[in-house]
Design a protein that fits this description.
32% of the residues lie in helices and 16% in strands. It has 197 residues and is α/β, with parallel strands linked by helices. The chain has one domain: Rossmann fold, CATH 3.40.50.1000. The structure holds magnesium ion and zinc ion.
Length: 197
């Protein structure tokens, strides 16, 4: 198994000046499940998330997804199935008028000792390498403390959403370490694109 899969068949990036935004997948773009998302049919976008991605794209953001998918390492689904799930995600995003430039995956089980499973920063470092840039100050949106911790480890701009795990995760941060918090990806997109709802 390769340590990373980068699905970038149709990357459209201004390589000189990518204005990146990094999104976690489960609980941010689609509804999470304690039973894992194991097939394309189990991938259901959260309300407003597809339009939010389209809004970010039309405002000039390059949208990148960084996701822990330990279901691969646990043997619950194959890397090929995960690619099919991401094809479905891309299809729905495209249909809404958006585009995902790349999907970065940690497929490893929690006990595999990899360096890319969030909260470790390896997956975000892979993004830096691919795009030839630092993630310093780049918005990194997640619904779990490990997303926020990974973002902080690379001095990105951590943003927590209250979808998925978010409401629970919000309680885990003492006030002075609390990241920016929004109700949903739609509200994040409004904030990042200067549109007030
Ligand atoms: Mg998540
Ligand atoms: Zn990993």
């Amino acid at each position: 198994m390769t340590p990373q899969q980068t699905q970038d068949r149709d990357t459209r990036v201004d390589a000189e000046h990518p204005r990146l935004v990094v999104l976690d997948r489960d609980g941010v773009i689609n509804a999470d499940s304690p039973d894992f998302i194991k097939s394309p049919g189990e991938w259901h976008a959260l309300p407003g998330s597809l339009d939010a991605i389209a809004q970010l794209c039309s405002s000039g953001f390059t949208v990148v997804v960084a996701t822990n998918q330990s279901g691969v390492g646990r043997g619950l689904f194959t890397e090929q199935t995960l690619e099919q799930i991401h094809d479905e995600m891309r299809r729905q995003v495209n249909q809404a008028g958006g585009h995902i430039a790349a999907v970065f995956v940690c497929p490893h089980a929690p006990d595999a000792g990899c360096d890319c499973r969030k909260p470790l920063p390896g997956l975000l470092r892979q993004i830096e390498q691919k795009f030839g840039t630092t993630l310093e100050g780049v918005p990194a949106v997640g619904d779990s403390a490990r997303d926020i911790d990974a973002a902080m480890a690379v001095t990105a701009r951590p943003i927590l959403v209250r979808t998925g795990n978010g409401r629970q995760a919000e309680q885990q941060f003492p006030d002075r370490q609390r990241p920016e918090v929004f109700d949903s990806l739609a509200d994040v997109a409004d904030a990042l694109t200067g549109r007030n709802s």
